[in-house]
Amino acid sequence: MLNPRVALVSMPWHSTNMPSIQLGINQALLSEHDIETTSHSFYLEWSRFLAQRVYHREEMLAGIESVSDTFHGVGLGEWIFGVPPLFPSDPKFDAEYYRFLVQKRIPARVIDSAFAVRNWVPEFLNQCVSEILAQSPGVVGFTTMFSQNIASLVLAKQLKMHDNDLKVVFGGANCQGEMGAALFRRFPFIDAVVRGESEGVFPELIQNWQSGNSPSELPGICLRDSDVQRINPAASNASFTMADVPGPDYDEYFQRLVRHPLQPIIDPQIQLPVESSRGCWWGEKSHCTFCGLNGATMSFRSKPAEQFHDQLMDLSQRYRRLKFFSVDNILDMNYHRELLPRLAESPIDFQLFFEVKANLRKSQLRLMRDAGIRTIQPGIESFSTPILKLIRKGTTALQNIRLLKYCAELGVDVVWNVIYGFPNEPIAEYESMAAAAPSLVHLQPPRMVRLVIDRYSPYHADPSSHGLQITGPAEFYAYIYREKASDLADLAYHFEAVHADGRDPEHYTQSLKAAIENWGNRYTTHPSRLTLRLGPGFVRINDHRFERPSEVILEGIEAAVYQAIQHGGNAESVSRQLVESQELHVSATQVRDVLEGFKAQSLVFADDDRFLALAVNVHDKGADESDAGLGQQPLVFSL
């Protein structure tokens, strides 16, 4: 009969300023089943280990974040932990990887630091082994996502070498579907892999082992039972609801943080991860062509609003924290009725992050802000309507830019990317976006990133129908697993591909890259402004986007039209709006001439025949397109 204790482990690389929600939920889950469990946030311990050996500690923390983010695409974090006993030392192989990093233009100081830090990994692993074995567990469960595979594998193998009776279990995003089965087949020291959500099978797996029974029938499980390997298909439906998922237990993270030499630096940056839903309600309707999230779990499910509210309150009170980071793929729109008004009316000053869809009304965004959602990631991806249509985003360029404007007016931070390199994307759109970018520099800038083909995305599932040819797993996998990249298709999440028409996106995106780089630099160093103020019968616009600041005063028809396109509109809709709201009879032809004049002054964003006023209203009155037609509270103009 198995030792009843379980150790849960999260290895580098993971953000030091966040507890692991995977550890937190599974700690609470196993505790609910009366399974004695300890958590080990070894990613936080790794930063403590490094802090004792380096002088520039704040730079070291920034480096940890960049390894798991900026340098994930070259496998740097994984390679650092690829040491014995997982793989033998091989100076020739390391030299090849060094040349690969140079070829990918990784800064020399980063490469040198990675090679130096790698020498310390064996000592760190010994500390981890000692900490776990001191608890005498019967099962060690590793959660792994992004750049955590190799660090988890090397520690698991080292633990097995010390105690072969230990049961080693892997789970997490890196173990979805075929990837989990590939890990199981390649690394025989893994006793089981939970492929998919742990709530339905992990406690039962442990209980079966503890009682001496075989858990061989559990859905989705990969199981090594004596010399027999079983790889079970996943269940068609989850055996639990989101209401069954407990709130996370982060006690161990904060207990470990108390002993951390950089606790004063980390503590103010801490955000508590929370989860209100799984899956994606938009992906159920229209799977974005590039998105590899969710795997087989696209079906959208959310927690009852009252339960999620209570979990926020409990976590805040328990850990004396107000900042929360939602790991959801998308905000449940029902929360606009069931949760957000309650949070908005509360005196508690939460600061929340959520991913959202970009076609929000201003009233919805205002409610989110008032509820404490101060940062959003709206999945903008482009400000070209033809490209957005191509990738099935369900938004237009005007809606995306309008959201950026709303965020500027309401004081909401927005994190967004421009992805380039989609198959069959209209090349001319990049010059159009580059031409539009200088007029947008008063809004928060994006990061420009090249498309990566991810497993589970429509591009990966059916590349030929999208004009792609997948050439194999991403190149860095060969350096991580020391196999030919072509042999790693079952293990990889990222893939290399070429366009069937032979295009190279690097050739036609240079103008936009330069424009976005300038946009980001200006926003950081010399923020630009384009502001609007309302007067009695006129609109005053102050423009500090260009080399020479200017002031524009709009009167009469021009002022009325500019007000009418605060949320976007075309000549015909604006003409109707002016009649309905102010009895101003202005023909669509007259309106179109005014709109073209605004376009020539870079005062609007034009998307086909629709126009959006770009000036930010510095005294937002709270009116919304759903409250007052196309504009804000109408001014009365005499012609």
Radius of gyration of CA atoms, rounded to a whole number = 27 Å
The residue fraction in helices comes out at 25-40%
Major beta sheet, strand line-up: 2-1-3-4-5-6-7
Q: What portion of the residues fall into strands of 2 or more residues?
A: 15-25%
- Estimate the global geometry from the Cα principal axes: globular
* Major sheet: 7 strands, mixed
Q: Uncertain spans, ≥5 residues at pLDDT below 50?
A: 626-639
Number of E strands: 25
**Structure annotation, total helices:** 27
- Overall SS class: alpha/beta
Mean pLDDT across all residues, rounded?
A: 93
- Number of individual domains: 4
Protein name: Radical SAM superfamily protein
Keywords: Iron, Iron-sulfur, Metal-binding, S-adenosyl-L-methionine
Cofactor: [4Fe-4S] cluster
InterPro entries: BchE-like, Cobalamin-bd, Elp3/MiaA/NifB-like_rSAM, rSAM, rSAM_horseshoe, rSAM_ocin_1, rSAM_sf
